[in-house]
Amino acid sequence: MSYTGSAVATAAEVAPQHAITLTDNALSHLRKLQKEAGSESLLLRVGVKQGGCSGMSYVMDFETDANIKEDDYIVEYEGGFRLACDPKSLLYLFGMSLDYSDALIGGGFNFSNPNAESSCGCGKSFSV
Fold it and tell me: Measured between alpha carbons, how far is residue 53 from residues 1, 27, 81, 121 in Å?
């Protein structure tokens, strides 16, 4: 009996490409919103803040390069789309995947956060 495969994955195969992953649907919708905001040079800032029904809430907004801080984590995605995250928020968001759905019920951005122990029904707040 011979075995030609490997059951052990390398770290590169297991680790996400970015600390925060954007699905194709999310990236497409974010690019559309970016154009509607008036400039393709805007970057998306994601983070967390105290509040929401589960204790912490996700925040997202577009901003200019002038607002980038020295210790921000910056990711450049396919096609030059950029995301910024402050180091404190990154502790809570590392490994998160952001998706988008245009479904009539339950549509919008969906945060899939492996660090969240629980989240509210709307999915916009979480606890750790």
Answer: 56, 27, 31, 9
End-to-end CA distance of the chain: 47
Structure tokens at 128: 């750790």
Across 34-72, b (16+ Cβ under 10 Å) vs e yields beeeeeeebbbbbbbeeebebbbbbeeebeeeeeeeeeb
DSSP symbol at 124? S
**Per-residue pLDDT tens over the stretch 85-122:** 999 999 989 999 999 998 887 778 988 888 877 666 55
Q: How open is the CA angle 76-19-6, to the nearest 5 degrees?
A: 110
pTM above 0.85, yes or no: no
Radius of gyration of the chain measured on its C-alpha atoms: 17
